[in-house]
Amino acid sequence: MAKTKTIENLFVLLAIFSDILPILLFAIFFKSIKSKRIIWVLIAFTVFDFITNLSLYYFIPPNYHNYIYPVFTLFESLFFAGFFYCTISKAYIRKLILLITLIFSICLIGYYFYLFFVIRNIPVLDSIPIGIESILIFIFSFLYFYEQLNNTSNFFIYSQASFWGVLGILIYLSGSFFIYIFANQISIQELNKYWIITNISSIVKNIFFTVAIYIQANESIKKPPKNYNFYPSN
Prior knowledge:
Distance between the termini: 62 Å
Strand content: under 5%
Number of domains: 1
Radius of gyration: 19 Å
Order of helices and strands: HHHHHHHHHH
Number of helices: 10
Largest sheet: none
């Protein structure tokens, strides 16, 4: 039992401090990527994520965590929506993302106000907003991949920083989707047992964000070899 607890704590710490990876790489390649908006959005979220998780783990007492989660959910959804807004080029899709995010944010603030100040029923975790946020981000991801598939000039999607950013976000949200959804329906003990999946998802997300920054910093990776023939003749 003690060994299991040690492993769980290890993954918690890895999930928190793996945020430093993309931040460190951003600092190293700052000059070459300082004009890239999508990287700034990823880093802004990563810094926010790191400060929040560090505060929750070391400084904020557990009985106050329920008040922090809603703030985190709101800003997380804004950061991710901002990332897709900067990544997708089609104007009508960008406007759609803007509209959906605005409506969701207003509804979210209204929901939290009702929950905290009207009925005063504070859940263990804000499962409903997290579930809706995840579904919206999944839709934005679909729109991103749809645009990429219709982009005939893009032969190597995996050589784009945006691809790794989207992949990191998808794994991060999908890895913890059902855990968050059922968080208020199971005991704290059961929740802690499966929380390691969330931590692993966070670690993978940070690795993919690091890959995104590295690719963005090395423009040559995006380009095919010289004289490369996409359609070789027999």
